[in-house]
Backbone:
């Protein structure tokens, strides 16, 4: 099991890899003020998605999301879904990107931007 820590002023994230499963835990505020460090390190994270067959985004400890954080999270979800498994021939049902513990702000913002149906595909 491999763990990586990235710490911003108020936003933290932890990536735990086990076999072809990646768990990404976000902690703190997913806001414009705190996105820079995560943005700067997204490429190594997304590169790991190429080897993964399942990616779980755990938002249980996200305390606040603004529109910039929502847009960035949507981009990360889209890119991780696109890169998932490197496009190999595995059955699509074995590949998935999932949001665990979605905060109510995420659902409110998805409604506001007309992305509810798109976001709901990631919710369990």
Residues:
């Amino acid at each position: 099991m491999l763990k990586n820590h990235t710490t911003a002023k108020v936003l933290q994230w932890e990536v735990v890899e086990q076999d072809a499963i990646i768990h990404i835990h976000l902690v703190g505020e997913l806001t414009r003020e705190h996105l820079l460090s995560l943005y700067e390190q997204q490429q190594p994270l997304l590169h790991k998605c190429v080897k993964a067959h399942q990616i779980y985004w755990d938002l249980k400890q996200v305390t606040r999301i603004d529109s910039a954080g929502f847009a960035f999270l949507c981009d990360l979800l889209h890119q991780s879904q696109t890169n998932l498994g490197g496009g190999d021939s595995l059955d699509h049902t074995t590949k998935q990107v999932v949001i665990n513990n979605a905060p109510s702000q995420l659902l409110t913002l998805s409604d506001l931007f007309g992305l509810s149906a798109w976001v709901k595909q990631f919710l369990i």
Q: What stands out?
A: Residues 57 and 84 are 13 Å apart (CA to CA). The first helix runs from residue 36 to 40. The chain has one domain: 2-120. Strands lie at 2-7, 11-18, 21-30, 54-65, 96-100.
